[in-house]
């Protein structure tokens, strides 16, 4: 059985703050008490897989631009 200490909504809210670039992970760690390594892991995971469709930081597919000659 898996155990989630933080709700999906709480995690997404914190990740949105991290990804906005307006606050450092260190600042968020001090405010929330969530270990900085956990925040870095969440951030790295989001960069690989994206957030849910309910957030503005959903991972976008990036294709190679087509060049016509």
UniProtKB/TrEMBL annotation:
Q: Which InterPro entries match?
A: Homeodomain-like_sf, Transposase_8, WH-like_DNA-bd_sf
Look up the record and give one Gene Ontology term from the biological process aspect.
DNA transposition
Which GO terms label this protein's molecular function in UniProt?
A: DNA binding; transposase activity
**From which domain of life does this come?**
Bacteria
Q: Mind telling me what this protein is named? A: Transposase
What is the species of this protein?
Petrocella atlantisensis
């Amino acid at each position: 059985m898996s155990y989630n200490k933080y709700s999906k909504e709480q995690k997404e809210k914190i990740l949105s703050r991290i990804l906005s670039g307006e606050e450092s992970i260190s600042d968020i760690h001090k405010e929330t008490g969530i270990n900085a390594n956990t925040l870095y892991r969440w951030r790295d995971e989001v960069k690989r897989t994206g957030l849910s469709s309910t957030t503005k930081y959903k991972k976008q597919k990036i294709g190679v631009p087509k060049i016509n000659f």
